[in-house]
Amino acid sequence: MSALAHLPTGSRQPASPPKAARSERYRLLPYLLLLPGAAWLFLFFVVPLVQLAAASLYDPTGSLSTGYVLTWAFGNYPAAVQAYWPQFARSFAYAGIALLLALLMGYPLAYAIAQRAGRWKNLLLVCVIAPMFTSFLVRTLAWKTILSDNGWLVGLLRDVHLLGPDGRLLATPIAVVLGLTYNFLPFLVLPLYASLERLDHRLLEASSDLYASPLKTFRRVTLPLSMPGLIAGTLLFFIPATGDYINAELLGTPNEYMIGNVIDSAFLVRLDYPQGAALSFLLMSAILAVVFGYLRRAGTREVL
Amino acid sequence: MRISRWFAEHWVLGVALLVLGYLFLPIAVVAALSLNRPSSRLSYDFNEFTLDNWRNPCATADMCDAVLRSVQIGFLATVAATVLGTLMAFALARHRFRGRSGLNVLIFLPMATPELVMGTSLLALFVSGGVPLGFWTIVIAHVMFCVSFVVVTVKARLTGMDGRLEEAAMDLYASEWQTFRRITLPLVLPGIVAAALLAFSLSFDDFIVTNFNSGTTVTFPMYVWGAAQRGIPPQVNVIGTAMFLIALLLVLATSLRGRQARRAALVPVSAREGDRS
Amino acid sequence: MATENPAGDLRLANLSKTFGAFTAVDELSLTIPQGSFFALLGASGCGKTTTLRMVAGLEEPTSGQVLLGDRDITRLRPYKRPVNTVFQSYALFPHLDIFENVAFGLRRRGIRPVHGPVRQMLSLVQLDGYERRRPAQLSGGQQQRVALARALINHPQVLLLDEPLGALDLKLRRQMQIELKRIQVEVGITFVHVTHDQEEAMTMADTVAVMNAGRIEQLGTPAEIYEFPATAFVANFLGQSNLIAADVSGGNGGDLLVTAHGARFSVPSARSRADQGPVFLGVRPEKLQLAAAAGQVPAGNQHLEGSITDASYVGVSTQYLLRTGWGTELSVFVANTGAQERFAVGERVVAHWNPQHAFLLDRRADEHDRTTPVLVP
Question: Residues 19-48, chain A: which have Cβ within 8 Å of C?
Fold first, then answer.
């Protein structure tokens, strides 16, 4: 008991400094862990965006060889829109149509793997990812072969008169939309699968037990519960699809060019940096506007 | 009646198989073309069966150089992104600190930004800073867009891990370092490996960001892009098919090996109470 | 089973833990004698697990000390303490086999040999031959025993058990209770067992501390606590009690006289927690007996009248609900010995008890009768 009597004052004092030192060390640890990665992202993601914003306001009459001057030339923006609004509109239209097609294909696929595949689940999931292992460009070139004028697909469609005798698929908007749909479909399916997989199938049984038709069950139970995956998948599909220009380049013609093609040539062919930067910024703002509008309507911020 | 019921129950599977067929169609074409002797440089039609392309994948030397360069870049970018991303994932999953939500936004944004914008903005930075474009600017760019994916993958694994395992280790005389080495790291490793594989495939396959920051350096996707205008050598299809097969084997191997450990680490004990002997 | 340090009691001195504005453990002082089987019993959120984690070193106390013998271990890291824990749902390392799980503590301290002690420990918990299995391949009961072996092999001075049987089904739990008690006697280590299951605590522990809202309400042997609870909370947390609101109206030699709803009862002063003011008169349901008329009540027994409103036959006993004249329902358990007559719903009866079985508890002025419902848990 003698030990107890002097304890409250006796041994608490010498014991506290090590504790303080320890928590001091641990308070710094997360910042040390974060520093390299965050610095990298700041230097090579945030700073470039600022640089891009500055570049979009350069004097448009400058050039790479003579040098650019930041003149706060806000006129670059209206000029860019004026010149390239059809490509802008086309980007969003193509990406939107491709998204609808991808939803029609991707939802049943994700649902079947998550709820119906049983022990084949993992194998089927690998099958969804597997095509992505082959290079994006190589796959798109394969579509060029499939859709070519003397390919079997065009021949078949001509035989059943879905295409006229001179009708083509390659170098049409159809080919570009098909390519977009194909290339980004797995990005839509994977998050969708993740949330459908968590869906307890007993909920579906409960719903049909409570007099819901399969369609009602889908609308009232399955769809709302898969919403987080649907939103994440939609964004993962739509964002890269809108900014893509490879499909338009390889499967289309200048008549199908999207905004990406214009930006690519502004930076790498015409070397018109102010215009390219203004277009990039417009593209990003337009996408962010669509995304946040969509998120607000869908009523969730879970994706962040 | 019976047929319509069968149809009602199985149409989803039917659609799923059709979609999978759609996903694999171009792969089949690539594999077929890798075994083709093309009639001319610009022809994409199947002409004559041959194994020459597989026997001689480096017949066009430029292409193999490009593949090698992509592997080098992919390796460097993967190592750097995996280290940086894993450290960040640990901080986010295990520590409370100020500025957490801002950091989450910083990590999320690169995944939500079109590659085109990342590519052009980096180009604007490098040009205005007078940095010569080439191998290292590509590596820098690849690390940047891979880091976020690593963070997300490793963090998911870390938060799915039972925190009591670490407490149990500390209770059993393991110091902080020993706990990390013996318990945390082995349990998180599958997540880190998955993140590294993802980073490598993102880097190896990237075209858009690379295109803006490569200068005269040619990676495999850049090579294919250039060749698409002049005519694709059939060896490109050999590489495409080989990559597909290698990745498939890797995935199957890791999923077979990792299945048991993963199941054990992520399923809480209480969920297994049913199968008592 | 030699330990390096001279053996000692585990003592908690004014131990407190607050999380923000919430006080989980409130100035807790406690001595747990060496070699005893001690149970911390309480509902979830009462602070019992936090107390345990502070002893293990997994939680730092806001104030107060943890002492082992004369040694202050309050600020020691968990891996520096001669204390081991059996975690709730076990926390077995999924990537290590059973052998390596059990050997973990020895290897971290560099103790050799490893093989002999591990095999010996596995046979103590009857898991010989399971060395190379993974935790996932074991049943819940087997995992529980691995967790026990993994902790015991280190010969801790104190073994902490955090709801160790909570994940097991009822039958297995009974079996493990007996086994844990056997092992504790065999190894002679101090066991501190946290549980919300009163029956488990009473079956296994020598001493039980009932915790509520971060404080200990009562400490004692299971029989002491059950027979003479200190507070209304304890009276109802451990088993059931009929608590009748009453007021002390006077004394009579060794007895206290109380008035409840106009009736007068006496209770021995030795069984009173208060000797004046508002009190609860408490009687356990199995201490109440039923008679058809007041004339049949044995001399010296207290009694009150009522009518049967419910009778449930549960095998070993019949559980009655009795409505008193003033409207309170009392529960009465009558053992089915075959000697007593059975009563039907609606019958008027007299409930009586030996005053030595009643107890008086302090009561806040505005509280009404607190009786527990008749249904078996």
Answer: 19
Q: Min CA distance, B261 vs chain C (Å)? A: 6
Give pLDDT tens digits for C67-89.
Answer: 998 889 999 999 999 999 999 88
For residue C277, CA distances in Å to B111, C256, C359 come to 71, 12, 15
Residue A18 touches partner C, C-beta closer than 8 Å? yes
Q: How many residues does chain C have?
A: 377
Residue type (1 letter), B25: L
In whole numbers, what is the pLDDT of chain A averaged over residues?
82
Q: Which residues of chain C does A12 touch, with a Cβ-Cβ cutoff of 8 Å? A: 63, 65, 74
User: Looking at the complex, does the CB of residue A202 fall below 8 Å from at least one CB of chain C?
Assistant: no
Residue type for C70, please? D
Mark yes or no for CB contact A41/B248 under 8 Å.
no
Per DSSP bridges, beta strands C71-72 and C63-68 are: antiparallel
Per the structure block, which two tokens stand in for B267? 């399923």
> How far C10 CA lies from chain A's nearest CA (Å)?
12
Q: What residues of B are in contact with residue A54 (Cβ under 8 Å)?
A: 124, 128
Q: Do C159 and C86 form a contact (C-beta atoms < 8 A)?
A: yes
Segment C275-288 shows an average pLDDT of 90
Task: Say if residues B201 and B194 touch (Cβ distance below 8 Å).
Answer: no
- Token pair belonging to B146: 């891979």
What domains are there in chain B, each with its CATH number? Answer: 61-232 (1.10.3720.10)
Q: Out of C13, C60, C75, whose CB is closest to A7? A: C13
Strand-by-strand arrangement of the C215-220 sheet: C83-86, C158-162, C190-195, C37-41, C207-212, C215-220
Give the mean pLDDT of A27-56. Answer: 91
pLDDT at B60 over 50: yes
Note the pLDDT tens digit of each residue in B140-187. 999 999 999 999 999 988 988 888 999 999 999 999 899 999 999 999
From the list A101, A87, A95, the residue with the least C-alpha distance to A176 is A95
pLDDT over 80 (residue B9): no
Q: Highest mean pLDDT: which of A20-24, B36-40, B96-100? A: B96-100
* C336 part of contact set with chain B, CB < 8 Å: no
Cα distances from C171 to residues A236, A283, B207, C41, C168, in angstroms, run: 51, 66, 63, 21, 8
- Residues C5-22 have pLDDT tens digits of 445 899 999 999 999 889
Instruction: Test B267 with C93 for CB contact under 8 angstroms.
Output: no
For residue A154, pLDDT over 90 is answered with: no
Residue with tokens 């337009």: A286
Measure in Å the smallest separation between the Cα of C75 and chain A Cα atoms: 7
CB distance A221 to A207 below 8 Å: yes
Query: Looking at the domain A77-298, which fold is it?
Result: MetI-like fold (1.10.3720)
Gap between the Cα atoms of C350 and C310, Å rounded: 15
What does the pLDDT look like over A227-254, one tens digit per residue?
Answer: 888 988 998 899 999 999 999 999 988 8
Q: Does B156 touch chain A (CB under 8 A)?
A: no
Minimal Cβ distance to A142: which of B29, B127, B220 = B29
Ranking A18-32, A112-126, B143-157, B177-191 by mean pLDDT, the lowest is: A18-32
The pTM assigned to this predicted structure is 0.80
**A140 Cβ neighbours under 8 A, 6+ residues apart:** A179, A183, A246, A247, A250, A251
Using an 8 Å Cβ cutoff, are A154 and A147 in contact?
Answer: yes
How many inter-chain contacts (A to B, CB under 8 Å) are there? 252
Looking at residue B48, what is its pLDDT? 75
- Contact between B167 and C134 using a beta-carbon 8 Å cutoff: no
Residues in A touching B214 (Cβ below 8 Å): none
Which residue spans of chain A are classified as CATH 1.10.3720.10? 77-298
